[in-house]
């Protein structure tokens, strides 16, 4: 079976939030596959590479003295950010306030951490800070903003969200898991240099062209990470702050390789090409009478009002149904123009 199985990789999937790994990221992943950054005393090279990865992510996100690590993905990074906020707060009944479009990993985080997740309605698919303010109280430990939402690719007003967090004595966490590698080339205020952001998720394995698993957790100060540290009595290192123990060095090494190859010119080129494609697709769909949301970043959400078929699914179209509307599809425009052309041609055929 394995010999004959063809992997369905990201290349043909219009709605994937992950990109195809850069060739040098693929090579680096293979070289470091059998290393374990979870044991930095033994695997020193990959541990040093992890510092390089965090430095590079810091440069992308306006962080002068970056702290953080390469996580298994955005889910782990979001869980860990809320864990920092919960552990340092002085309350027995912690809650986190987020806009309704926050990724479902926050639901997992709240369950795992026994924290209440309060979600506020959005306005035009963007966080409504007035609605969020109403949910904040003395037990709020973290206020979350999303910089590139999963379903619409919209960017929340991060400076206003950071102000809400500051006023409440809570931490501000920004989820730029998907948007983080596009946003440096836009006018949005989203990163550590733009607002009092405390922690951030930014995933090299999504738009960063690293191999899975490579998520990123960043913190404004190293001391914030102290709240994650667990003693490791028998290892050469004394403590560990990741959620996973043993982890592959493939993600770490490929993140460094991708960022060395692409930051900034390659990522800028990717942003410009993808945005161009997204705008083209949005125009094509609007011209055919479909309701389109975006693109603010390279993601087009559209009500195609046609039944989902196996053929469409094979062509990479997926359901994305937060609105309770099974015909809402999302398309992430890291794909080529010719793929989009054939997708639009298929729609015309229907
Ligand atoms: N934060 C945001 C804004 C996300 O979009 C995602 C995942 C996460 C956090 C969680 O990241 P991990 O999945 O790395 O833990 N966004 C995509 C989604 O849920 C993930 C994805 C990627 C799904 C490729 C399907 C797929 O084919 O839609």
Automatic annotation (TrEMBL):
EC nos: 4.1.1.25
Q: Which keywords describe this protein according to UniProt?
A: Decarboxylase, Lyase, Pyridoxal phosphate
For whether the record's keyword set contains Lyase, the answer is yes
Q: Which residues form a coiled coil?
A: none
**What broad class of enzyme is this?**
lyase
Q: Which cofactor does it need?
A: pyridoxal 5'-phosphate
Under the heading Pfam families, the entry gives: Pyridoxal_deC
The entry lists its GO molecular-function terms as: tyrosine decarboxylase activity
Q: Does the record's keyword annotation contain Lyase?
A: yes
Q: What family does this belong to?
A: Belongs to the group II decarboxylase family. Sphingosine-1-phosphate lyase subfamily.
Please identify the protein, giving its name as recorded.
Answer: Tyrosine decarboxylase MfnA
Q: Which organism is it from?
A: Haloarcula saliterrae
Gene name in the database record = mfnA
């Amino acid at each position: 079976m394995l010999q004959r199985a063809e992997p369905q990789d990201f290349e043909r999937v219009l709605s994937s939030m992950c990109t195809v790994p850069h060739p040098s990221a693929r090579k680096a992943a293979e070289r470091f596959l059998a290393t374990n950054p979870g044991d930095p005393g033994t695997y020193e090279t990959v541990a040093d590479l992890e510092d390089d990865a965090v430095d590079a992510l810091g440069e992308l996100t306006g962080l002068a003295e970056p702290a953080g690590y390469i996580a298994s993905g955005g889910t782990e990074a979001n869980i860990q950010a809320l864990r920092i906020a919960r552990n340092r707060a002085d309350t027995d009944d912690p809650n986190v306030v987020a806009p309704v479009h926050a990724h479902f990993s926050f639901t997992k985080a709240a369950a795992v951490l026994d924290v209440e997740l309060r979600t506020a309605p959005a306005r035009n698919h963007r966080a409504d800070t007035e609605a969020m303010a109403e949910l904040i109280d003395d037990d709020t430990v973290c206020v979350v903003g999303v910089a590139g939402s999963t379903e619409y690719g919209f960017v929340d007003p991060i400076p206003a969200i950071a102000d809400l967090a500051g006023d409440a004595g809570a931490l501000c966490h920004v989820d730029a898991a998907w948007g983080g590698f596009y946003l440096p080339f836009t006018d949005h205020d989203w990163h550590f240099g733009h607002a009092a952001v405390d922690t951030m998720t930014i995933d090299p394995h999504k738009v960063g062209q690293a191999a899975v698993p490579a998520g990123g957790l960043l913190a404004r100060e190293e001391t914030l990470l102290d709240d994650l540290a667990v003693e490791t009595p028998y290892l050469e290192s004394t403590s560990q702050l990741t959620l996973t123990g043993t982890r592959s060095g493939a993600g770490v090494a490929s993140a460094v390789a991708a960022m060395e190859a692409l930051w900034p010119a390659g990522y800028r080129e990717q942003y410009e090409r993808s945005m161009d494609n997204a705008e083209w697709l949005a125009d094509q769909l609007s011209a055919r009478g479909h309701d389109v949301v975006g693109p603010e970043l390279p993601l087009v959400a559209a009500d195609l009002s046609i039944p989902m078929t196996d053929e469409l699914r094979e062509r990479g179209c997926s359901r994305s149904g937060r609105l309770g509307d099974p015909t809402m599809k999302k398309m992430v425009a890291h794909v080529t123009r010719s793929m989009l052309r054939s997708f639009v041609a298929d729609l015309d055929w229907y």
